[in-house]
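In this section we walk through a basic example: taking a raw amino acid sequence and producing a predicted 3D structure, encoded as discrete structure tokens. The instruction is simple. Fold the sequence below.
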Amino acid sequence: MKKSLLYLLFSISSFVSMRSIAQQPFRCDGSMFVASYQNHRIYRIEFDRQADTVKLSPLENPIGFEVLAMGYSRRDNFIYGAACQNDEFFLCRIDSLGQGTLLKPIPLDTNIFQGLYAADVTPDGDELILFVAPRGAVENPNMSIIVDLTSPTFEMQEVIMTTLAGAPQILANDVIYHPLSELLYAHDIQGISNNLPNPHGKKTVIIDPYSGIIDNEIFFDNPPYGANLFNCMVATPFGEIFGIDGVRPNYGRWSELDPVTGMSTEIKFGDFVNYRPDTHFLSDGCSCPYTLAMEKTVDRDSTYGCREVVFTYRISNLMENNQEQVTFRDSFPPGFEVREIIYNPYPGNISVLDTNVIEITDMTLLYGIDSIQIKVWIPQGAEGTYFTQAFLINVDLSSTNQTANAIRSDYPPTIAKRDATPITVIPLEISLSSNEFEICPGSSIVLFPIPDTAGLQFLWGNGSTGPNLEVSEAGNYAVTVSGGCEKDSAVFQVIESPLSVSLGPDFEGQFGDQIELNPDVTYLSPITLFEWDVNGASAFACDTCLQTELLLLGDATVRLYIENQIGCHAMDELTISAIRKVYFPDAFSPNGDGINDWFYLQSKHGLEIKSFKIFDRWGGLVFEKENIRTNIEQNGWDGNAGSKQLQNGVYAWMAEVVFPDGVAIIYKGSVTIIK
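The resulting token sequence is shown next.
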């Protein structure tokens, strides 16, 4: 009794002390987080531009308990979720240092419900939605638990869920609110509809945790290909939703979910360089997209001087309030000129300073996502790579727990955050990939003087003005390319392809020989295909190599087909006649001196002798052996008839020899005994 009371007092004391930890809020800056329930830690997903990798950076402290599901609240910038400790479920809160606090037990009948594996916080930050998986057969429904984060006692409401079709349950490892539509998405890894497994496998569903409706029909015809298990789902300030696999066999694999079609596409941000399945088994993910962000892109990464390019600034304001009296500013290298503002939905005062600096003051950034587009002129002689970055100044980020009053633009193709946007200015030069260009007989090729043709003028020697020229004959073709203040000229020398192959004259070879084939090939463009072919039973050591060997097992007609990089082809063939030779002496001396004591058949390659017979001059059989092989003395005749030594003289012989292809040939002759 005393032990039980002490344990109860200790448990209450521990629970209260954990609630009393002073926690530090996060900054809502678009960061993404994942939880590992193996080592009880929260990790921030960090992007490394230089290494093109993604890594998991642990928060300062371990949580102290197992986090099963979580979501980020913009209301107070903490992570809330469901935790498990001593086989009980608790509502928990996690701060920016990784410190975890158990707030309140979550009553869950584990006889009916399996666990809490999916969660997210509503876009206003006021409620945590816990999506509960049922236990047992597919007939058991899901449940949502709505936790009021504004209530001092974190009041909870349970809602039994119902699917629109088929089985009354889904199995989702995470759920996520789309930051713009505010719809709650889930990835059903069972994919059950109409009481049958979805023929496409996994699928996307939309959940209304308040009405209890799971819409598992809306995306039935658009299955999410490429997805496996979305243990973690995160969102960006630009409305993108990503799913991350946290279990084998696809640790750390990313997929992007299209909220319109429900389809997911596997993507690669970079590798989780420090991801360890033994310690980083991911249970859930969350993010805070409710911030202010700006992306800057350019319509071409490389360009020539004396040309115009278009920069696009995509601005996302998902904060609670409009941003007033904001200044947008971007500056370009000296000599660049801001020529035109193509599109600007934001009210404000526009000014161009020193031709290469644009500034819009007193802007109002409304809630949502929109863009600014400007046209910039590149001067002559400005070759090089330039990095430029735009700023939004005089912004109020206090609701995101950030003290800065300005944000920088981000270049989205890289995985780094808030990095500058590059543009490379290259000289207008025709760089020919070769001194000669091949054309296949009876075909044509297309000549391309320069890869980026936008805004350039072309003049070919035959008067054509297109960016490329198709030719079907050998010859010299001149072209001049001009654009703005630069131009260049070149001559394409087109020759007929010299591709040819010769296997040489026909010849003979012995049956069973390994014959080397070394074709004589003439070419200019690299050869990309070798195909050997032979009739009959003969076989190549390699039928896709330039040089090969042929095992001659009969008369063979050999062909070689080759093809080069531009599609030209050539072929040659030769005939190899297989000779079936067996060697035999016409005399031997079986006198026991170890020299020529045996009469036996020989061949270059060992052959089967089905029968071997010796006859005297009157036709009497004096020796016989069956099923022996050539080239073995002891398989031959020692000059005796049984144990009797025979006299000198001439003896007839006959042998039936079987070759590896099954052909049997009878050889006959005479042999003289000389002692």
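Looking at the output, two observations stand out. Residues 292-425 form a domain with the Immunoglobulin-like fold (CATH 2.60.40.690). The radius of gyration is 41 Å. In the next section we compare this with other chains.
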